[in-house]
Amino acid sequence: MIVSFVRTETKSCTPLFLESAVFGMGKLMHSGFALLLIALSLAFPSPALSQRKKTPPPPGRPPLLLRTTTRHELRRFPFGGTVTIVGAPAGSITVEGWSRSEVDISADIQLQADTEADLDLLATVNTIVFDEDMNHLRVLTTGTHDKAFMKAVAKKFPKTLLGLPWKIDYRVRVPLSTDLEINGGNGAITLTGVEGNIQISGAESVANINASSGTLSATIAVGKVNLNIPSRSWRGVGADVRLAAGEVTLELPVGFNGDIDAEILRLGEVVDSYGGLESREKPGITPQVMKVRAGSGGAFFRFTVGDGKIYIKKQTADSKP
Question: Minimal CA–CA distance to 127: which of 111, 116, 138, 113?
Fold first, then answer.
């Protein structure tokens, strides 16, 4: 049983000491993290790679209070810029492209604690800050999960509050032509209607991606990645999807043109129900490796899974945008 208190806030201000503590934090995201994530996932089978282990409450403990605060921000932002989203250890991230030169951000911040005073204290650190310049907007999550941050801004923070559960669910709209960097924790990632260079990483996630242009790089430790390409030709370089453990599903329209590499590194198989794919180079088509061409070829797509399956399917009516 959880007692729930729900509040709604808009245009709330972030404390200045938080802004300065995380300035430039989004710049730490780079491709090296993706490679490290895969390496750690293959070496350690535990699905909670970046999650702190939470101790279950002792018997007879009263239920935690729950507070949900909705925060909304609207920022003017040019087409062709870059948006970085660093999510919370838990929570979903949904990003949608739209025709306006603005970034619209809504976030549901859910905190749990024993008392209202504890909730107020947690709200000062488990929050969102922004770092922006002319063409780069960074949406950053601060909180008790970040030891360096806590040491810098909250040295005397009560240790009894550090392991309490919390999450942030993001819903973000960006201009159609935008480069994206999404760094998620444990929670769903949904992306649709964005054209640009896109980098996605997550610890444990179901990632649903609907895209047909640009350059896509996605690295997930554990979970599922569903890539739906609505058009017959991809406008841009292509996609590179890596998953340590789980399933990748590629849905293509009839008559699609592109070159596809799909590989299982350890246990699992590649399942082709699309049909009409032709071997492009050795080893061609095997249960664990496929190097094939669809139609007349084109953009290049690489799918790599440590343990699990890769499905290549025809697009269905339900999967169409």
Answer: 111
The pTM (predicted TM-score) of the whole model is: 0.83
DSSP 239: E
Reported as half-sphere exposure (CB side, CA atoms, 13 A), residue 84 has a value of 20
Partners of 201 in the β-ladder:
183, 219
CA distances from 121 to 52, 101, 154, 162, 257 (A): 20, 36, 11, 11, 55
Question: For residue 195, what pLDDT is reported?
Answer: 94
Report domain extents, the chain.
Answer: 3-44+63-314
Per-residue model confidence as pLDDT tens digits over 111-156: 999 999 999 999 999 999 999 998 999 999 999 999 999 999 998 9
Give the pLDDT of residue 58: 62
Among residues 304, 244, 243, the alpha carbon closest in space to that of 45 is found at 244
Helix (H, G, I), strand (E, B) or coil at 41: helix
Strands 189-192 and 93-98 come out as parallel
